[in-house]
Amino acid sequence: MKLLTYVENGMEKVGVLSACGAYVYPVNYASMNELIKNACPNCLKNMAELANKPHNEVENAVLLENIQLIAPIPEPMQDIVCLGVNYADHAEESARFKKQAYAKDSPKQTVYFSKRVNRAVAPYGDIPAHEDLTSQLDYEAELVVIIGKDAKNVRPEEVQDHIFGYTIMNDVTAREVQNGHKQWYFGKSLDGFTPIGPWIVTKDEIAYPPQLNIQSKVNGELRQNSNTSLFLTNIEEWMVELSQGMTLKAGTLVATGTPAGVGMGFVPPNFLKVGDEVECIIEGIGSIRNKIVK
Ligand code: MG
Q: Which whole number is the average pLDDT over 27-50?
């Protein structure tokens, strides 16, 4: 099923998308964080059954087109855990931009970093250009894995059990700020740099491991075009590794990295500017589309 957060009459609500895709059925949770933390398997089954009902049998059903979608998790409980350079082709373009040699035979060691999100941008909301801070505004389409129950010392065979679902994120980045401070945190964490959505697709709808086409477009032009089967570090590997030493709490968002085709990968680089519209698309989930504004 698809779970979403929306605003109706000024109130933030959580709902499930009808199987036909046209209606939203509200569910009784204060927020998506509460739903992820508290919904038991039976509650989730009931919500999935609700999604399959015709709209005239559901109290308070609303048309999707009549509500305002916001990020499915508008305020993540913690910083987002991110994987850096998790596709080989993006590792190459990143190294070219930074003029470093990319050693194909170097030992594989996953890059982990974090991204602060005070308030996630809605699926069709605006991204502020932060022109005072950056002239290298860039996009990164990414699959996000949402942790469904606290993950500590997870064994490979338990990994799927800890996944709640999946969504799409644009890991918006100010490149000179990312690269100017040794750590990437600042350049990844400016206000409005994290569009997420349009909803969470629960794990039962996506075959594991996810092998999904992932794309981005800028003003309709295809920029990134890859598949999540090409991760350098796959879901099982990072969850087993990270959960050895830190608990990944229910509700944690883990962004799995982006493929080649970001702005810094072009020669010369092709960064975003005010007025551009960037779309991130993942098969089986949908797309988010955001405009760059002053
Ligand atoms: Mg990224």
A: 97
Q: Which of 180, 4, 187 is nearest to 82 (CA)?
A: 187
Give distance in angstroms: CA of 169 to centre of ligand 1. Answer: 9
What confidence tier does 101 reach under pLDDT thresholds 50, 70, 90?
A: low
pLDDT tens column, 15-38? 999 999 999 999 999 999 999 999
Ligand 1 centroid distance, CA of 159 (Å): 22
Q: Tell me how far CA of residue 66 lies from CA of 24, 62, 97, 156, 196, in angstroms.
A: 10, 7, 44, 43, 20
Distance, CA of 277 to CA of 294 (rounded, Å): 13
> CA-based Rg of the chain, rounded to a whole angstrom?
19
The helix/strand/coil state of 212 is coil
Centre of ligand 1 from the C-alpha of residue 255, in Å:
7
C-alpha angle with apex 33: 30 to 36, nearest 5 degrees? 105
| AA identity, residue 263 | G
Going by C-alpha positions, the residue among 25, 228, 70 that lies closest to residue 145 is 228
188 near 173, Cβ under 8 Å? yes
How far, in Å, is the centroid of ligand 1 from the Cα of 253? 13
Amino acid letter at 108? Answer: K
Distance 140 CA to ligand 1 centre (A): 6
Q: How far is the CA of 188 from the centre of ligand 1 (A)?
A: 8
pLDDT tens sequence across 191-201: 999 999 999 99
